Amino acid sequence: MEHLSVNAAQAIVVRSVQLPGIESVKLEQCLGRVLAEDIRANRDQPPYDVSAMDGFALRSADVANAPATLLIIEDIRAGDMPTKTVQAGQCARIMTGAPVPPGADTVIRVEDTQAVSDTQVQINVTVKPNNDIRPRGEGMRNGEVVLQAGMEITPGVVGMLAMVKRIDVQVYRQPRVAILSTGDELEGLHDPFNANKIPDANSYALMAQVQVLGIQPVLLGIARDEPEELRQYLQQGLKYDVLLVSGGTSVGVHDYVRPTLEALGVQMKFWRVEMKPGHPMAFGVAADSFVFGLPGNPVSSMVCFEEFVLPALRRMMGHTRIYRRTITARLTHEVKHKHSRTEFVRVMLAREEGSYAVTSTGAQGSGILASMSKAEGLMVVPAESKGMAAGSSVTVQLLDGMAYQHEAGGEY
Ligand code: AMP
Ligand code: MG
After folding, report:
1. Is 179:218 a contact under the CB 8 Å cutoff?
2. What pLDDT score was predicted for residue 20?
């Protein structure tokens, strides 16, 4: 317990949390949630062989010696059903998505044809069977599982749910999250300005970190460093699935959070992790909730959220991908490392051939919130590292926004 590594602490957290259950939501509201049921197709899609082009449905043998002139026997639009069978020397005018008529085995696009009269068309090219035909069931087959429980609902998943006409969807319930700041020195966002106080940044930074996950947390406010007031706030917070408390988790004489939580029946699993920033970092389990005691320093609080609260919340939301994506990239400068704690350096990333160049955001003090406001990633310096030379290959956890870039991508 005295020397708990980040990985070991993460494992305790992830093992302890439970999924809060399942609920039904409307299709319009399900984006970002996690499916709690397998979804099966309830029809073949397309329901029959359909044309992929505006053009003519015909018998490929008839155009083996193209050009050839064919008789147009009917017009088939998307939504129409063919009424005739295409015989030798005949074709049907067909629109994208319309069913291929019996007798025809291929489709040729209008650009490869030439009108002769209202009822006749000249086909200019030869064509193989099944050209520009989307076969029945190409998109999905009746009865097959098209979406699995555990999948995150992305726009593509929403489209598929609409395709199978799901009005209501079973998803994992979201944990209810409460946030509490502690400290006599704190000045609330709406309190009058007092130059001697410390603005409560943590409540809002943590709020935003929770919001990024698609959850709207409740801000409980600021508890003073006074045991009875703190007890009342913490008791209120324990009514939520997850309580985030920042400050007061250290070993100072006014750091009452840990003993007060214990007095309220919270079983503390750990209260210190070998990391920098974020040494005083507590996690406890109560009857119906999980409590994270985050360090008061704003950067530490945010980094501890990233490493412990984020995977916990994502697991509770039903996600299986619960950690930040990491990349391997090139460090542009030396990073010193003397102690034996895992360090999370706030970094910026610049694209370079085949990878990214990684550069520190600058001063890394745990009270210097600018290091977080500039950060595109957290570079991991392993506990046992003796320091990293410029040019080293390093691991970076990508923060939000890293799914986007300035340049238009690809070659087109
Ligand atoms: P603590 O963990 O309570 O000893 O706090 C450590 C440092 O973090 C102190 O300098 C506090 O003023 C600062 N701090 C604590 N809570 C907050 C907060 N909600 N917003 C900004 N700074 C804070
Ligand atoms: Mg404090």
Report:
1. yes
2. 81
Q: For residue 201, which atom of ligand 1 is closest to its CA?
A: 20
pLDDT of residue 254: 76
Pocket of ligand 1 (CB under 6 A): 181, 183, 185-186, 198, 200-203, 246-248, 250, 252, 295-298
pLDDT, mean of residues 200-218? 98
Q: What average pLDDT does range 315-343 have in this prediction?
A: 96
Domains and CATH numbers, the chain: 6-17+176-214+223-316 (3.40.980.10), 23-45+139-172 (3.90.105.10), 50-134 (2.170.190.11), 323-405 (2.40.340.10)
Q: What average pLDDT score do residues 181-201 get? A: 97
Tally of CB atoms within 10 A around 71: 14
Per DSSP (E only), the strands in 127-217 are: 133-134, 145-147, 168-172, 177-182, 186-187, 198-199
Mean pLDDT of 22-37: 98
Q: Is the pLDDT of residue 411 over 70?
A: no
Ligand 1 atom with the smallest distance to the CA of 225 is: 3
* Residue 412 confidence (pLDDT) above 70: no
The pick from 186, 209, 256, 258 for probing ligand 1's pocket by mutation, whose C-beta has the most ligand atoms within 8 angstroms, reads: 186
Residue 200 CA: nearest ligand 1 atom is 20
Residue owning the nearest CA to atom 14 of ligand 1: 296
Buried b (16+ CB within 10 A) or exposed e, 308-345: bbbbbbbbbbbbeebebeeeebbbbeebebeeebbbbb
Ligand 1 centroid to residue 196 C-alpha, Å? 14
Per-residue confidence at 252, pLDDT binned at 50, 70, 90? Answer: confident
Instruction: Tell me if 216 sits within 8 A of 175, measured CB to CB.
Output: no
Q: How many angstroms separate the alpha carbon of residue 181 from the centre of ligand 1?
A: 8
pLDDT of amino acid 1: 55
Query: What is the tens place of the pLDDT at every residue in 217-245?
Result: 999 999 999 999 999 999 999 999 999 99
Substitution site in 196, 202, 250 for ligand 1 pocket (most atoms within 8 Å of beta carbon): 202
